[in-house]
Prior knowledge:
The protein is mainly alpha-helical and 516 residues long.
Amino acid sequence: MKRLANIYISLAILGTVSCSKSFLDKAPQGVLSTATITSDTTTLGMAVNRLYGSLAWREYTLGRQQWSTHELCGDDFIPGSDAAMNFFQNYTYPADHGYIQQYWDRTYQNIHYANVVIDNAPTVGKSAPFSGTLYEAQGKFFRAYYHFDLTNVFGDAPMRDHDPSAEEYNIPKSSHADIIKLVISDLKFASAYLPTRQQWGTSQLGRITKGTAQGLLAKVYLYEQDYANAKLYADSVINGGEYSLFSNYRNLFSPDNLYCSENMMPGGYIFNSSIWSGRWYNPYLQYQGLPSFANGVIYPSPNLVNSYESGDPRFTATIFTKTDTIIGYNNNKPVAFPSNSNYANKKVIWPYLYWNQSNFSFQNVNPMFLRYADIILIDAEASNEQGNTADALKYLEQIRYRARGNMTFAATVTAGMNGGAGILPQVTTTDKTQLRLAIWKERRIELALEFNRWFDLVRYNKVAAADGSSGTGYTENLLKNVYGRTGFSYAKFSRFPIPATYITSSNGVLIQNSNW
């Protein structure tokens, strides 16, 4: 099956485009400027494809900058060999921490790349292969994606709604509300003009689609507690028919399934030693997976491990234990683990035959930055918050049905699963609080280790009280009183500090986030 490959950009010129494998099989390099872009559609097309490469690579640091700002403050991971990660787990990181600055730098760089595309798209007109509007729609999707991510990390931050001139680089923060307005506007444009997955066709698998834009809109509205619009756009994705739940939860994450029916925003990386001169592996893999080969930077937490229901097949699909083996490796003997962990992320661990050059780090990887199961759970949550219990239960059961292996709970009893007790009983409660907590637990398990948990915890604090009933304080209570992480303060640590370097260099234009 023909697939469009990602391009990479050198310092002075745009590189060539391959027409095989994945968008994301090369590392983006260098700087893209407005001066580089002309009305030539090939050149602008390369610039658009460069955005896809940035998604998976985050400019080489999808590892430390991503995990530190998106996961380590939560409860799904514990830090391993990288001492700096302990700062995030313990809430002792300073405002000048290098990982936070890396995230800031790379995110604004990617917003810049999106703006270059958007600002130049009108020069293309209706030329082949794509119209300027189609280039613009892709650019606006990525600008929205990165701004949404940015405001989830920092709250208020400088907003870039165009590629700035030199004198515009030092600007004050925009409010979270204003950033969200731009995000919604960009996503609505993208959803209006992007093709569906089917309209793109198999030669363009990996591109974001109408459904991707609608799905991200649903997520934005959920985070903003606008449940009516969250459900509206989640319904649009579900009823649109572009995506569906992949039949096998474990194989969903296989590198063989980069473009499966559930993957709405592929971030796959295809190993290719011929284009590298040293750094061949993807940082997403480097920072997790097997500690013997990936330096043991982060591990699934015991708290996450203990959260799975008895017999849930997603446990063995997600959690690799110290007694597990890898087919074909080390005579099928268990892998050595360090003393501080018994677990690894199995979603990036595959049989030895997948290891290029017999090296664990030289593998294809399949991170997904938005998938259909997330949209179903958004619809379930939004439905429950609006009192639509029937839809909430219906969508929750769809996730649990797939988790059982596409079986009803009754069928698992008949099949003798879990000793005949069955697995994952169907949730039937109509109590709003109990159903809210059931949906939140399902989100944690279904989307485990996929960059969702910390942002979920941040928003939960604004939705529910300590007991899960409507109110505030849920996360503050969970982290401080249940988990004993007494250093946590929601007022301070729900948002990261703006890197101190930029506060200083702005000459008073940038104001540090409150409580920092």
